[in-house]
Amino acid sequence: MPLRGGYLIGNVSPARMDFQWSLLGNCITTLSCLATGAQATVILDLVEEHWEDLVGELPLKIVYPALEGRDWRTLTGVDPKNTRWSYHSGGSWPGENHEHKAQNDISEQFNHTNNLKLIARAHQLVMEGYNWGHEQKVVTIFSAPNYCYRCPDVTRRTPDYFL
């Protein structure tokens, strides 16, 4: 990739280009020192140059307030306003609250409609290797547990459901 390139990360889905993730992903890349100094400068200059357009496209509450523990799972786990192939682009992620009861009902209805017993998700870092949710109707796993050396290698852990 050229050192004077624009975005390091882009997210193109079958539906459309996701500019929200492009901006957030590149800010994360810059803040976590995954970009070289020159690349970080170019990215931040580009963000500053297009600030009005980006703020118009991106709700600021996507990065504020910071959520910790189970709160972020509650707020981002099931969001009926998102369309298929859309990654939390309904307009105010993670600012809207969805109760556990609603999530459990949605999971149960989805499983029943599709003749499933379990939904498996694999798109987030789970420190324990796996995590149950929605009254054990959803299990979250991560396909690369030693992601960026942030947690121990837990690839050998298997949810009890599969034993």
From TrEMBL:
One of its GO terms (biological process) is sucrose catabolic process. Keywords: Carbohydrate metabolism, Glycosidase, Hydrolase. PROSITE patterns: PROKAR_LIPOPROTEIN. InterPro entries: 6-hairpin_glycosidase_sf, Glyco_hydro_100, Metallo-depent_PP-like, Ser/Thr-sp_prot-phosphatase. It comes from the Eukaryota. GO terms for molecular function: endo-alpha-N-acetylgalactosaminidase activity; sucrose alpha-glucosidase activity. This is Serine/threonine-protein phosphatase. It comes from Castanea mollissima.
